[in-house]
Amino acid sequence: MDERVREHAEVLVDWSARVEAGDDVVVSVAEDAHELGVAVARALGERGANVTTLYGSSEVSRGYLKGVEAGTDDAVDADDFDSDPAVDRAIFEAADGYLRIGGGRNTTATADVDGDTRRAYATARKGVREARMDTNWVSTVHPTRSLAQQAGMAYEEYQEFVYDAVLRDWESLAEEMAQMKEILDDGEEVRIVTERDGAPDTDVQMSIAGRTAVNSAASVAYDSHNLPSGEVFTAPHDTAGEVFFDVPMTIDATRVRNVHLVFEDGEVVDFAAEAGEDALANVLNTDPGARRLGELGVGMNRGIDRFTDSILFDEKMGDTVHLAVGRAYDACLPDGESGNESAVHVDMISDVSADSRMEVDGEVVQRNGTFRWEDGFER
Amino acid sequence: MDERVREHAEVLVDWSARVEAGDDVVVSVAEDAHELGVAVARALGERGANVTTLYGSSEVSRGYLKGVEAGTDDAVDADDFDSDPAVDRAIFEAADGYLRIGGGRNTTATADVDGDTRRAYATARKGVREARMDTNWVSTVHPTRSLAQQAGMAYEEYQEFVYDAVLRDWESLAEEMAQMKEILDDGEEVRIVTERDGAPDTDVQMSIAGRTAVNSAASVAYDSHNLPSGEVFTAPHDTAGEVFFDVPMTIDATRVRNVHLVFEDGEVVDFAAEAGEDALANVLNTDPGARRLGELGVGMNRGIDRFTDSILFDEKMGDTVHLAVGRAYDACLPDGESGNESAVHVDMISDVSADSRMEVDGEVVQRNGTFRWEDGFER
Q1: B331-358: b or e for each residue (b if 16 or more CB lie within 10 Å)?
Q2: How confident is the model at residue A338 (pLDDT cuts 50, 70, 90)?
Q3: Quick check: A111 contacting B, CB < 8 Å?
Q4: Which one, of A203, A226, A214, lies nearest residue A177 by Cα?
Q5: Which of A154-163, A235-244, B98-107, B248-257 has the lowest mean pLDDT?
Q6: If DSSP codes are grouped into helix, strand and coil, which group holds residue A206?
């Protein structure tokens, strides 16, 4: 076995999920993530944990959803799914940890599933999703040829890209990110401005009063659930203005480019996309919370050196900020407050490496991608 | 998708598992069983069932067990495993049905796991196994290159072999098998005699008084849990005599050939094998029940025309009888009686196509493979 696969498994189990002897850990293994699944099972056995392995196959999901479509007379709605499926609920209520290892054979495997069906399924599965998020969950990927293709990279090149992002000195990155967390924790209002051809194309402001930022250092000990990570994020509210997202992405197997959102009184009141506008509309129409922001994130992982059309990596890249419509993470909210609720959480990214600034309470904290504690920062 | 895969899925879901709308069905998909997993998910979606998909990978199991070995100072024993793993227990307590789709990439994937470790794991997992067997469970395989290799066949040839065995007229086979069930239900004592070179090499008798035979027609409606099936089996007791099993098999990834067992007072008191005797010893030493019989089965599926080193097929083949050491199936036992208990259930097969007879209460019911209701039967 490639030594990097073994190291990836150990970072995932020890640093990220903080697995201890006796823990019940559920591992979801995607179609081509077998090697990492084996290495993770071995690490869990060594730690004295119990392992249950799910098969996280997009083609199996598509098969199931197409079957539901075939078995339903009209368009599929949430009532066509069981909102309290006994086994899935039982799994996540009993689990201490959940390790999701992505890495399928085709990132567009569910492209021909109807938008109504997807939305209905996401709505019906809200309870299961919430039970899953109450565990020590971590999402990672095993590098596959399919993901390399989505990234536009050769397979070995992509493997190096993934391990450069994953096998890092997480403690030292966590220390650097603590500075941004402090700024956001103390701040009340964030404004982001970017320009294109000399005119503003993003000028948006949002409140972060009363919210707590997460220093997302790829470990549940930091309320961070992605490996790799390397972002600081919070849960904004009362958003107003316009945002242009110039980093391409894939939503529900559809390529989406150049999204433009207009916010008034905290809600998206107008939207457009140069490609994939229907997929975007499906997201925004899921439920009322899908039109409000659930996240503002600042990418700080400079080990990620390019966009690969994968949100797991893209949103962590240095020189980017991202906003997500939909569900807010509990970790950002005061105790007992629910924040924005939604069945979806979809991140969208802006490149801020040039012609940009982020202000917190009127003070510039990042300009053209450089943070205020870094060399070369222009106030 | 190969139309035969879709048909296999439909036989599995409808005839075998009798899935109904609203059922919670757990599907275990082996490493190379993806295609059938997709087809089964689609069929379950059409029927309105919930689906949870497990990854049934032998390499993941090996990884876990090797990890436990590495994390344990001395030899692994049952105390090194959690005998009540919360997630696995919750899954099978909540499930209505369990569909196990075999078909890995290497049938000897766990060959280097220590025998003590295997035995300890089997012992610790008894509770989970029993919860699983309380569901509507069915075990089948997707034809893979690995299984073709084990069978000594080309891949396409093996696919045809599997679908010939699986895609049958199960109702009509069930009617024929009902005759054998009636004989065993009414009988009190079974004697099996085979000769080799003119001298008896098997001469064994056992009581079946008070036991109920299962007409194993590949459906939970018949208390039958294998697809394909095509055998009639019961739970014998008080076995005495000698048995020679001339059909090769694989136990715990070890090839085992020409097993000889000697029974006294219901227990194995002596054993030998020309190959794989250690693997056989591991089985027999699992627990006291592993030395008593749990099953007598009569193969009646004449659609299976050769041995393929897979118990799922071999034990169903016409012209064979088999005995299993270990656990008895509840369906064969009077209500409230537990029968033989064990953490294992290992079948061993004798070819009875020539020089053989099976007697029930002194009357010959099968001679040289021909049943008494068939043309050419010699009383």
Answers
A1: bbbeeeeebbbbbbbbbbbbbbeebbbb
A2: confident
A3: no
A4: A214
A5: B248-257
A6: strand
Residues 6+ apart with CB under 8 A from B172: none
Going by DSSP bridges, is the β-strand pair A254-264/A267-275 parallel, antiparallel, or unpaired? antiparallel
| Residue-wise pLDDT tens digits, B159-206 | 999 999 999 999 999 999 999 999 999 999 999 999 988 777 899 999
Distance CA(B323)–CA(A279), nearest Å, equals 59
For B57, the token pair is 């990978």
Tell me if B38 and A59 make a contact (CB, 8 A cut-off): yes
* Distance (Å, whole) CA B179 – CA B165: 21
Query: Closest Cα to residue B189, out of B211, B168, B174?
Result: B211
Query: pLDDT band for position A313 (50/70/90)?
Result: very high
Q: What is the ipTM of this complex?
A: 0.87
Query: How large is the average pLDDT for residues B248-261?
Result: 90
Please tell me the distance in Å from A254's CA to the nearest CA on chain B: 22
Residue of chain A whose alpha carbon sits nearest to that of B85: A50
3-class state of residue A139 by DSSP: strand
- For residue A61, list chain B residues with Cβ-Cβ distance below 8 A: 41
- Interhelix angle B34-47/A58-70, rounded to 10 degrees, is 30
Q: Which of B20, B29, B50, B93 to mutate to test the interface with A (most CBs of A within 10 A)?
A: B50
Partners of residue A95 in chain B, C-beta under 8 Å: 86-87
Say yes or no for a CB contact (<8 Å) between B50 and A86.
Answer: yes
Structure tokens belonging to residue A189: 């209002």
| Contact predicate B24/B95, CB 8 Å | yes
pLDDT in tens, B135-144: 999 999 999 9
Give chain B's domains with CATH numbers: 3-166 (3.40.1830.10), 172-371 (no CATH)
Q: Does A65 touch chain B (CB under 8 A)?
A: yes
Whether residue A252 has pLDDT greater than 80: no
Residue listed under structure tokens 């500075």: A179
Q: Using an 8 Å Cβ cutoff, are B250 and B107 in contact?
A: yes
What is the SS3 assignment for B258? strand
Pseudo-torsion of CA A197, A199, A201, A206, nearest 10°?
140
